Amino acid sequence: MTAVAAIGSPGVVRMPPIDTCRGRSIGWCVVALVLGVAVLAGAAPPDPLPAPVAGSFTFKGTEFCMRCHRSEQSEWCDQPTSAAWRHDAHSRSHLALVSTNPRTRAMEEALGIKAAQTASCIACHTHSPAEPSPEESIADDDNRFFHSGISCETCHGAGSAYFEPHLHASWRFLPTAEKARQGMADLRDPVTKARNCLGCHLGDPDTGRVVPHAAYAAGHPPLGAIDIEAASAAMGPHWKRVWEKSDRIQALAAAAEYHVEAASTTHRSLIGALVALRESGLLVQKGAERATAPAADPPAAWPELSLHDCQACHHDLVVPSRRQQAGYGGLVPGRPGLVRWPRHAAEAAFAVAEMPTTADAVIAPWIRPLNARPFGRPEDLRSPAGAGESLARIDAAIRALAADRRDAARPARQQRIALTLAAAGPRATDLDAARAIGWPLVAALAEAEGWPADVRDSAQARLTEVLGLSIPGPPPGADESGAFWRTSLDRAATFDPAAAAESFRLPPPTNPAGK
Amino acid sequence: MRPFRRTFCLITLSAAFLPTAVVSADGPRFPHARSVAESPAACPAPECRDALPADGSSPGEAYAGMTPDPAGRGLATASCASSSCHGGPRGGNHAIWSFAATTWGERDPHAGAYQTLFEPRSLRMAKLLGIGPPHTERQCLVCHSVQEAVERPLPREVLADGVGCASCHGDSTGWLEAHSTDAWKGLSAEDKAAVGFVDLAGPLERARVCARCHVGDADHDMHHDHVAAGHPRLFFELAQLQRRWPRHWDPDGRAESAPDFNARSWAVGQAVALEAAGELLAARASRASVAIRAGERARWPEFTEFDCLACHRDLAPAAGLASRGQSQADLPRTLPPGTPGWQPWFVTGSGWLDRSLDGTAATAELAERTAQLRHLLARQWTTTDATGVERIAAEARHLARVAGRSADALAAALCITVTADRPRLDTLSAGDPRLWRSWEAAVQTTLALEATCRGGPAPLGAACPPGPVDELRETLLYPPGFDAPVGFDPVRFRRQRDAVP
Fold this sequence. Notes:
The complex is a heterodimer. Chain A is mostly helical. Chain A is 44% helix and 0% strand. The two termini of chain A are 40 Å apart. The radius of gyration of chain B is 23 Å and the shape is globular. In chain B, helix 16 runs antiparallel to helix 17. The interface between A and B is large, with 43 and 47 residues.
């Protein structure tokens, strides 16, 4: 798999011993004795990005996690982790597969399927221990896997191998690569986290997580732009950042150079945009690989329209045409291209990483085959010429952003990022693209110097209002988090680029940070 | 809910049916009408003059490095438009033929077809498509001038005529001399055809000539790349176009003098449009299958073959989806959702031919072949397999042949009476779910009604009551700011249609 090969092997971070027992009567708590400093695997530059967890592990079941994570563990979270997750829409994602949901029923009828028995639905709405059989719905009341929705192990990794070891205090500061080897994903790493979220929220043909076009046509809500940081903040985090932990742990972390994540929300957000740009190309590439793989039985359908930019086709025909005015960025007019929304935010991310380029130039390897034929030939797309170089450029920008630290110069850096994003905003031609810039801009303003609090607050409020940036959690008992997406679709349909551009206008900073 | 204003823009539905008219919120913009007395190369609009290269010779891709074909004089309107032939003064006691070219030059949008290529929209199209200036591109000139799809470009002063006399009547090289003698009128149609004169007396001949550009064919292929770059989509309905067209011939003693002229034009036009649409699809598919086999660039699937509104709509839940993208209501429900229907514009009207007008063997096969092709495309519209694409080509060619035979039969039929069949059309449409939902079907219904009761170029046909049909048109208009019938209300349309007495 070229996509994975391009990423390289994981980084290794070692931490000093820390007593995590905090006086609780947990008999298995011991003092870990792992000393070390940050050591990067394959030390020669460029730094490799972490690899996703790979290996065959099986699910233990959420109830095993809840035995400990239900309790108040202030070093993990300000409230019991399980309670935080229960407020998270993901804990109810499986309910969208139950036929009592009217939208689900309509979709099942149109597609002639039962959602709870369909692998591509299950892949993102819950997890199942095995392929469901047609006779036996996994929605049966006794199926504990189905009823946990998108839960602990969906993101952190199936726990069959790490469950026992991670009960020991020594686990806590094991190198992330070692944890990954045992099946636990390092979600503190922004790339791992973004890839994990985008696997469903953008799609990943390799793991069967693609909403086919027929399912959208039958009523599945479109997957809009997502900002990993804004979305996970809205869901209610069930974790703490290192710097949110006690002084004692922070001191230990600093001594150990425990820098596995970019310190600022903005940086993590922009890393998410770069990962999304990367995955938007890999989406069609992986789809093409599966469509041409000799082993695939039956080979994946090609073209699968949903791997492409929805808005390439799904836009109202307006005069004057904003799309024609903006141009098609290297794409033959009228050809469906890659998912568009990460583009401008990623462009800003390249600028922040001091590697200025255009997104059009970065995605050109995937666009060329799409220009040769609508939807492209899978033979041309499974390993597009130049894709490796493009991925390497994206990865280099990610590494540059991941190096962000919580130092004295950070507010000045945030100011420059805010100005870069504000300048990129007016280029957004649709709501999704504008949001993808708006979310990190709101985050940057929160940490930037140069604007009085009232100016900053009103700029954030204006962006949030005009672009609809606030993501409400689902109301208690709701079957789906549909309200936000329904509102988003209406907003997208009535998107006013002039008003959006205006919302990105920032007053000049009182103390320009300079270059 | 999207804001939907009830005030309609100035454009009329008819403007949308004349593809040379640029539909905009400012109202219809026709290319500048001009007199043939002006120098053919003259370009009155300042922005147009600025766009002209000084030497007029920067060639497009197809004509790169070629000198103009000197043997293009038989295509020049100037050879027809001398003041003693077809370029005389309009009106008075002069015979209509004596100022035919004057009428064309002053009033006919076709005369401005070449100038359209200098408009900002056209220049932007060229930029987006990455091609040369439109007035040097064969792909543009084949419909916007008398240029045929040949290897050599014509001289600029000939191209500048736009769609001139020779575009429809044929290259006059072989007949110009004979045509200027009294003996010409005594020649038979066959004699005239033998020397290259194209007879355009009846609806059948006209429809086939118009359809070359207004539907398209292998050499006149206005495809989705062009539309995405800014070209308006094409509509074709012969009776409507004829009625709106400034006539430059005398209807006396011609097809127009027959009482069923409008009805026949509508029926023949529908069959010819389907024939042309079938042939265009066959040409596109054949070309694509060759390219697919060779592993070369191919434009397949070709999106203009399908219902524009199936894809081109925003995804807002409140945006009235029921009224749009429903052109496949007649297709089996076993198809996966999200499959666009083939050419709703062309299949709607022709779908009524066999059931309401003719009833003879000539049109009996139409519905079956159409359904066959639509079903095949619904299953395989994105196929990348050359054999599959060839099958589509074969099926399309078959439909074109059947539609062509229907057109011939309808043109030769003794009498076409749509008027007498109107109650039956009503009955049919009541049972036709497409009319409830699809804007295209609603427009075709309106045009069919108008063809039955509106006067044509000659004051023929029963008079339509002024109110109800006009209201139908209003319901069909695009709302301001849109280039699509966003917010079309099929229930309102149905109510208004039922009110037509």
